[in-house]
Amino acid sequence: MAELALHPAAAPVTPARSALRRLVGLALVHAILLAGAVFMLAPFVWMLVTSIKPPAEIFSAEISLWPKQFYGLQNYRVALDKAPLLRFALNGVILCGGILVVQLLVAIPCAYALAKLRFPGRNVLFVLVLLGLCIPVQVPAMPLYIALAQLGLLNTYFSMMAPFFLSVFAIFLFRQFFRSFPDDIIHAARLDGVSEFEIVWRIVTPSAWPAIAAFSVFSAVAHWNDLYWPLIVISDAKLAPPPLGMMFFADAETGSNYGALTAAAAILTAPLVIAFLIARRRFIDGVTMTGVK
Amino acid sequence: MATVALSSIAKSFGSTRVLGGVDLDIADGEFLTLVGPSGCGKSTLIRIIAGLEHQDAGGVAIGGAPVDHLRPHERRVAMVFQSYALYPHMTVRANIGLPLTMSRLRLWQRLPLLRLLSAQRRRVMRYIDADVAAVAGQLQLDHLLDRKPAQLSGGQRQRVALGRAMVRSPEVFLMDEPLSNLDAKLRVHMRTELAELHKRLGATFIYVTHDQVEAMTMSDRVAMMDAGSILQLGAPSELYERPASLKVAQFIGSPAINLLPATVGSSGRIELFGRPLALSAPLAQGQAVTLGVRCEALSLLHGDSAGPGRAWFSARLRRKENLGSEYILHFDLAGRDAAGVTMRASPAVAAGVNEAAEVTLGFDEAACHVFDADGARVEPRSPGGATGSVVPLRAWP
């Protein structure tokens, strides 16, 4: 009674009322999230829808999510016949794989040294890494191009990969991750006779899988979709990665055949989407940094 | 087996002096405990012995030979960490076997893929597995060998960490608060197991803890550390019965020792709450001293039992703590400028004391410790002329 007198305005909270309030809250949150999801997915869905529409329907004024006439087979056949899509995809895999492997081989030992070893100049080096994060890829493009041209390496896989071998972002990400790795385990490893090199690869790296998966997604997405650098160093369509290949494809015979173009785009996007879906859990773990326990 | 000798070890982190010239000789096969409050430098000291940290000055010798230039694994020491420090992605078998894998296989035999080419590797691995199994058997880990650390309980992880240390048959075991993460019951059990392990292996154990009970129960000798230096080194009973300073007296013993403020009166007689005692100290008149009285040395006085050689004061009961077999009684000192005192009492004695009732507490003057204003121990002269009498350890007053 005393409590009621103190809060006369507060209505008694019944189970039904609190359940209703929760339901309304949940509905609201989901409505907002759903709106965001629709906004982000719409272009992607539009691409998929366009890829199964006949040319006549693509430019019709009405908006429909399903074509009146299913034209998917024809569009995809044209895309696969006219452009070496699988070749582009293979180039993409070689490019992304090559870059990622070297990035990991370089960045993991660097990050370990910055996170766990004590040596003079460590902080200066780390500041340099942070500064490196601030330099956009366009800045060193010119000298890199000239250097590759002088070495006669233009129009090779290597020329596409080389500028990205050293990823300051990877060093930064892994350094933050390794810092949370318990010092005691590293000490125990040293007492057990494990060399520093093996500590990095046998003890610390296995625990960094979430960070590695997260970084792999970032790296693969960035380089799979990169048009800028391949456009500069590659002129041979046989070496073109997906976006550059799409460009060659759009330029040539297909021209304004948007059905075939979107079909090609759908085919070239698929590997990334599938890879992300597989690594999704690890990716989220890595980004939220709840790795070592 | 090996002795460990530390000579004037000093270490600073930046401008913070962590160790200020520590000398310590540890005998072959001894169980020595470094005890002290957190931040006293005990963990840094053990890491210096292991070679994980480098001292700024001084030297470490194991088995008579200096090891300062040796890397951790070359020092023939093994360490058990508070956090166990197991390799999270390896099975128990791989965790225990790793030190042997590192020492018995060449680098290329440990590399992925390449190692499949080595026939010798398979033979060596069989020996390693046998050694791991032998250690696991001693620690009752046989059925857990294929589990990962995350699937083990705290006590099991602790035993795996012990196994990883034992499998190398080191001459010196270093233990850095190995029981601190265990629950109370398991800790008591592991205390016994560790003491038995020490007896069985006969190796030198250096054990770091902030828990004075662990120090008292397991060690041959205890080194009490504070602020980067050793305050007292001796057998557990020595630290308890003859603490060299106020800090040692306060740290060792549970419940903590009772401290009573006193002064030096005329002709060196110590006065407690204005009443002269039979004790006298070789100090100037008017100097403040602190009397340390263990809680089991206090007893209830009933009128006539006060007599020569027994100090007394009045107090009021604040709280009784029932420990089952005994009681801890907390008293306030009525109207005096001093913290309360605690007393150990049998249930029968405790039943006779009522809350808030004023009682008279007394103690045998020979059983108290006298510390001067700087906290150093002062040997009092008792009226009989005998100095430094040994404190009688009585269970019940």
UniProtKB/TrEMBL annotation, chain A:
Function of the protein: Part of the ABC transporter complex UgpBAEC involved in sn-glycerol-3-phosphate (G3P) import. Probably responsible for the translocation of the substrate across the membrane.
Entries under Gene3D superfamilies matching the protein: MetI-like (1.10.3720.10)
Keywords: Cell inner membrane, Cell membrane, Membrane, Transmembrane, Transmembrane helix, Transport
Any GO BP: transmembrane transport
Protein name as catalogued: sn-glycerol-3-phosphate transport system permease protein UgpE
Main location: membrane
Subunit structure: The complex is composed of two ATP-binding proteins (UgpC), two transmembrane proteins (UgpA and UgpE) and a solute-binding protein (UgpB).
One of the Pfam families matching this protein, by short name: BPD_transp_1
PANTHER family referenced in this protein's UniProt entry, alphabetically: ABC TRANSPORTER PERMEASE PROTEIN MG189-RELATED-RELATED (PTHR43744), SN-GLYCEROL-3-PHOSPHATE TRANSPORT SYSTEM PERMEASE PROTEIN UGPE (PTHR43744:SF8)
Transmembrane segments: 23-49, 88-112, 124-146, 158-178, 199-221, 258-279
Keyword Cell inner membrane carried by entry: yes
PROSITE patterns (alphabetical): ABC_TM1
Domain ABC transmembrane type-1 residues, every copy: 89-279
Top-level taxon of the source organism: Bacteria
Subcellular location(s) of the protein: Cell inner membrane; Cell membrane
Family from the record: Belongs to the binding-protein-dependent transport system permease family.
Bilayer topology annotation: Multi-pass membrane protein
Organism from which the protein derives: Alsobacter soli
GO cellular component entries: plasma membrane
TrEMBL record, chain B:
One of the record's GO molecular function terms: ABC-type transporter activity
Topological type in the membrane: Peripheral membrane protein
Annotated ABC transporter domain residues: 4-252
Keywords for the protein's UniProt record, in alphabetical order: ATP-binding, Nucleotide-binding, Transport
GO cellular component, one term: ATP-binding cassette (ABC) transporter complex, substrate-binding subunit-containing
Superkingdom of source: Bacteria
Subcellular localization(s) per the UniProt record: Cell inner membrane
GO biological process, any: carbohydrate transport
Family: Belongs to the ABC transporter superfamily.
PANTHER family, alphabetized: MALTODEXTRIN IMPORT ATP-BINDING PROTEIN MSMX, OSMOPROTECTIVE COMPOUNDS UPTAKE ATP-BINDING PROTEIN GGTA
Descriptive protein name: Glycerol-3-phosphate ABC transporter ATP-binding protein
Organism per entry: Alsobacter soli
